[in-house]
UniProtKB/TrEMBL annotation, chain A:
<feature type="transmembrane region" description="Helical">
    <location>
        <begin position="185"/>
        <end position="208"/>
    </location>
</feature>
<keyword id="KW-0813">Transport</keyword>
<dbReference type="InterPro" id="IPR004761">
    <property type="entry name" value="Spore_GerAB"/>
</dbReference>
<keyword id="KW-0472">Membrane</keyword>
<protein>
    <submittedName>
        <fullName>Spore germination protein</fullName>
    </submittedName>
</protein>
<comment type="similarity">
    <text>Belongs to the amino acid-polyamine-organocation (APC) superfamily. Spore germination protein (SGP) (TC 2.A.3.9) family.</text>
</comment>
<feature type="transmembrane region" description="Helical">
    <location>
        <begin position="308"/>
        <end position="330"/>
    </location>
</feature>
<feature type="transmembrane region" description="Helical">
    <location>
        <begin position="39"/>
        <end position="60"/>
    </location>
</feature>
<dbReference type="GO" id="GO:0016020">
    <property type="term" value="C:membrane"/>
</dbReference>
Automatic annotation (TrEMBL), chain B:
<dbReference type="InterPro" id="IPR038501">
    <property type="entry name" value="Spore_GerAC_C_sf"/>
</dbReference>
<protein>
    <submittedName>
        <fullName>Ger(X)C family germination protein</fullName>
    </submittedName>
</protein>
<keyword id="KW-0564">Palmitate</keyword>
<feature type="domain" description="Spore germination GerAC-like C-terminal">
    <location>
        <begin position="224"/>
        <end position="386"/>
    </location>
</feature>
<dbReference type="InterPro" id="IPR057336">
    <property type="entry name" value="GerAC_N"/>
</dbReference>
<dbReference type="Pfam" id="PF25198">
    <property type="entry name" value="Spore_GerAC_N"/>
</dbReference>
<keyword id="KW-0472">Membrane</keyword>
<dbReference type="GO" id="GO:0016020">
    <property type="term" value="C:membrane"/>
</dbReference>
<feature type="domain" description="Spore germination protein N-terminal">
    <location>
        <begin position="23"/>
        <end position="211"/>
    </location>
</feature>
């Protein structure tokens, strides 16, 4: 019997992480990687995926130790009430801005490829409303929704990967080390953030039935995504070559556009990708909104997280419409990842981890 | 009370989201652009001042002349009146589509584009050609699998041609290109391939050349290549060298090689081809060794002559190898000495497999290619001889 306590199982956590990471990055990743290291982009895709396991490790170790306190609670415990709250606020801002930018990139892409006459506001607004409806219900129903869409996502994704295979030149994956290794290290910066989304681990521990298994399942989820992303980067390179890939904004869409089913009974497959992509983005948005609500609730000392989600609606909506042009939007996205992203994904987990090592009493003591 | 308020909210929201469909478009409102011929508008050059005030678009020189071939999807089944050809002069391609909309009753739709024809004049004009390339890449709807050819000759002439077996000339042309699967003389290229080739090789590409064949009832033919270098037309590549181009670029699918053996012209049908390149160290110039392996069938011999014999086949095999080797060598020499640009993929290979070497020669690659020593090694295998022994 599964108890009705809004907690999720390990498999559900894996699915949750998987769906949160899989988002806007999938369309733009090959371009940003190819810009950094040319044909070595696929190596960078693997490297930057694996690098993230380190941060997952930090997050999980800390989370496990303070599993019943939650993110803000753990920070407060480690750094005192005031300072802990101050440390938590940027993470809240990160989740809110992240949601807004994901929504905007989503809307821009949909407008470009599918709904060119529909106002941006009307692409964004229904998605926020629906995401709020789901996020309000809590982590368990969201995880169940994610579980139900995952087979569809994987099926269509694998199908599209096969479709893109013919007429590709896989020698384009060479030369791998034509650029200096330093570029790979600097490239990790933009590459690693394409896998962001797993920072939801920071807040999710109080809702886990088995916190000790979190590291294993999240790493598996990340590795699966790394595999998917690497294959997509490889296929894009093989189809277009590194320079053409680097010059596109959404190379993955172009990849599918340039693919055809032998026999040609379906044309314009990018429609299929875009339709599927709505789900990718939706799950990401639900998850980050939920993350924001949990931190918001903790900061405001609210037990009931439901209403906090709705508070963010106007904020996210307005933020998502701030960027003037696509160019500015992508700049905003870069700025977000450089400052708040580094803070949330790298700095906070590391300082929390160090603090947790120093904190002998630990979180577990409370249970005894 | 609470329930009622919730219900009202939901109703208002439903109204909000169901009443607006901004992108609704019925198939009956569309006309598919199936082909477009992009040409320079030579006549307009003198008529209008180059520097316009910028206030109105019609002051600007209309440098392009684009002819759209359109199909009405709802009438294709009936055949009659389903197709339409319209020429538009315009500043650029996007504006041309807008102008087109002022003279058709339906929404022009790019998504089903099948063929893009660029005229020779256009491709010679570097700036305009680059504009067109950008237009194609920047359009989100355009079918990037549409084929592309370069057309020599008078565009007016092309419209008068009877599409022979097909209903449309565009289908006629794409049909010829599809045949590159079964012949080594014709070539095929999609928009994606053109864009990738040009982008990855700094403006280098070999595009199929569409020509009007004067004899027997005037028709189209594609058996040459238009060589583009530095974003403009460099030269035409004769049919005899096309096979080498296809072999070296791994585009070869199927083709016939006729060899002379004991006074007989024997066709050898090649259906598998593999080529490998090695860079050999030493010397001032680059040294390449190329190995080409082919597999195929003998299609013809002579009546009452025994072909069902290992030694005869070995002899013929030998002959095929020599003949292909000679063809490759001659063509390579042609590329090195006459064309003077690397269309054979040696630069690409060196970049991918010997990157440090490539970096040394990169600046002046064409010169290094011209001086490179390239040797060929051909291995041919005869697999089948058809159903008869003699």
């Amino acid at each position: 019997m599964t108890p009705n306590d809004d907690k999720i199982s390990s498999i559900q956590l894996g699915v949750f992480i998987y769906n949160t990471i899989l988002g806007v990055g999938i369309l733009t990743l090959p371009a940003s990687l190819a810009k950094e290291v040319e044909a070595g982009a696929w190596v960078l895709a693997i490297l930057s995926g694996l690098v993230n396991i380190i941060f997952i490790y930090f997050m999980c170790k800390v989370g496990e130790k303070y599993s019943e306190y939650g993110f803000a609670g753990a920070l407060r415990r480690q750094f005192g009430k005031v300072f802990g709250t101050i440390l938590a606020i940027p993470v809240l801002v990160y989740f809110v801005v992240f949601t807004a930018i994901v929504l905007r990139i989503f809307a821009e892409t949909i407008k470009l490829y599918l709904l060119s006459n529909t106002p941006l506001e009307f692409i964004i607004f229904p998605l926020i409303i629906l995401a709020i409806v789901l996020a309000r219900t809590g982590v368990e129903p969201s995880a169940r929704f994610f579980e139900s869409v995952t087979p569809l996502i994987i099926l269509i994704l694998v199908f599209l990967m096969f479709v893109a295979l013919p007429k590709s030149d896989f020698t384009n994956l060479r030369p791998v080390f034509s650029v200096s290794p330093v570029k790979y290290i600097t490239g990790l910066k933009s590459g690693a953030f394409a896998y962001s989304g797993y920072e939801i681990l920071l807040i999710i521990f109080p809702f886990l039935r088995k916190p000790e298994k979190a590291f294993k399942v999240s790493s598996i989820a990340l590795i699966i995504i790394t595999l998917f992303y690497t294959i997509i980067v490889m296929e894009t390179l093989a189809k277009f070559g590194s320079r053409e890939t680097a010059s596109l904004i959404y190379p993955t869409v172009n990849l599918i556009k340039a693919s055809e089913i032998p026999g040609g009974f379906i044309e314009r497959l990018e429609g299929l990708l875009m339709a599927l992509w709505v789900i990718f983005v939706f799950t990401t948005v639900v998850s980050t909104m939920y993350g924001a609500s949990v931190i918001g609730g903790d900061i405001l000392n609210q037990k009931e997280k439901k209403h906090i989600v709705s508070i963010f609606l106007p904020l996210i909506y307005i933020l998502s419409l701030t960027g003037e042009s696509v160019v500015e939007l992508f700049k905003m996205s870069d700025t977000l990842t450089i400052y708040l992203g580094t803070y949330t994904i790298i700095i906070v987990p590391i300082i929390m981890f160090i603090a947790s090592l120093l904190d002998r009493k630990g979180g577990k003591k409370g249970e005894a | 009370m609470k329930h009622k308020r919730g219900l009202i909210c939901i109703l208002i929201l439903t109204l909000l989201f169901t009443s607006g469909c901004w992108d609704k478009i019925e198939l009956e409102q569309r006309v598919f652009i199936t082909a477009m011929l992009i040409d320079l508008n030579e006549e307009d050059k003198e008529n209008k001042p180059i520097g316009s005030t910028g206030a109105f678009n019609d002051d600007m020189p209309e440098k392009l002349k684009i002819t759209f071939g359109m199909a009405n999807p709802s009438k294709i089944q009936e055949g009659e009146n389903a197709f339409l050809i319209r020429s538009v002069t315009s500043v650029n391609a996007t504006k041309a589509v807008e102008k087109l909309a002022t003279m058709t009753s339906r929404v022009p739709f790019y998504g089903q584009l099948r063929l893009v024809i660029l005229t020779e004049r256009l491709v010679r004009n570097k700036e305009t050609f680059k504009e067109i390339l950008d237009h194609i890449e920047r359009d989100a709807v355009i079918n990037s699998l549409a084929k592309v050819v370069i057309f020599t000759g008078n565009p007016e002439e092309a419209f008068e041609i009877d599409p022979k077996l097909e209903i449309l000339n565009s289908v006629y042309v794409t049909g010829i290109m599809d045949n590159s699967k079964i012949t080594s003389e014709t070539t095929d290229m999609t928009l994606t391939e053109l864009l990738s080739s040009i982008r990855n090789n700094d403006g280098l590409a070999a595009v199929p050349l569409l020509e009007v064949r004067p004899q027997d009832g005037r028709g189209f033919e594609i058996n040459r290549l238009a060589l583009i270098k530095d974003y403009s037309l460099l030269d035409y590549l004769d049919t005899r060298y096309v096979r080498t181009y296809k072999i070296m670029n791994r585009k070869f699918k199927n083709g016939k090689k006729v060899i002379n053996y004991k006074g007989l012209e024997i066709p050898f049908v090649i259906y598998t081809m593999n080529r490998e390149i090695w860079l050999e160290e030493g010397g001032d110039n680059l040294k390449y060794r190329v190995k080409v392996e082919v597999e195929g069938d003998i299609k013809e011999y002579s009546f009452e002559e025994n072909l069902f014999e290992t030694n005869t086949l070995k002899d013929i095999q030998q002959k095929i190898q020599e003949s292909i080797k000679m063809e490759l060598q001659e063509s390579t020499r042609y590329f090195q000495n006459v064309i003077g640009a690397d269309y054979l993929g040696f630069g690409d290979y060196t970049n991918k497999y010997h990157n440090s070497v490539y970096k040394k020669y990169k600046e002046n690659w064409d010169e290094s290619f011209k001086k490179a020593e390239i040797s060929y090694d051909v291995k041919a295998d005869i697999r089948r001889i058809g159903p008869s022994k003699k």
